[in-house]
Amino acid sequence: MGGDEALTSWQEIDLSMRRSALHLVWAPHRRLEKALFDATSELLSVTESTDDLNIIKLSTSYLALLNVVTYQSQHEAGTDRVQFLIMRAAEYEASVIPDPVFLSDFHRLRENV
């Protein structure tokens, strides 16, 4: 969300990478992909076990995903808050409509000056 309270477009965190034969044996780039998959799976498990938003927002998985959105993605100039959305989709099946499964709160990037 920009400083003028306007919402910006969603940005997808794309972890795909062109694969080579070497990736059959050694693929260190997959660590971030695996970590995000695990954090997402764990967050969805937490949301199924409780309706308490405070417990959800203090879970390790929520905080890990918030960290990625805050520090590992690009933000438009003037953006002061971030939010993340988890979508369930089938990358190789174009007929499957993506399904939103979790929407975070807005979180400040920095203090207003």
TrEMBL record:
It comes from the Bacteria. This is Uncharacterized protein. It comes from Brevibacterium sandarakinum.
